[in-house]
Input
Amino acid sequence: MNPVKILYIILGFIFLGLGAVGAFIPVLPTVPFLLLTAFFFSKGSKRFEKWFMTTKLYKKHLEGFLANRTMTRKTKVYLQGLATVMILISVYVVPIMHVKIFLLVLLFIMYWYFAFRIRTVKPAEKAMEGVILPNEDEDLRASVD
Output
């Protein structure tokens, strides 16, 4: 097997472990680690990618986001708040000005991405994702027959 693919699989499992721990510990973010898991498994092994897509972690935290690029307001606020706190702690601790500027730019990009690239939905809409509703035309045709 290709050594690069083996590295991708190992990294996938490392980030899966971090994401699983993050599901139970509020300080550790879950979604970014699971996104990295999905990325590394997709590069390393289709079998592991398919397996990961059937796990409860994937279905609960990533499935809706990856399918529709949507999040509830509560999820957005939680993820942005946690990331903001972590980045600002790093800005405070790191003595190098260039790193501080980079982290602040990263923070700005994160807020831009969440505001303009991820659509906010209500929890009720999130629950309806994937539900196929019949078209009105089909209803009219059925009533005519």
Summary: DSSP finds nine helices and two strands in the chain. Residues 131-145 have pLDDT under 50 and may be disordered. The first strand starts at residue 70 and ends at 72.
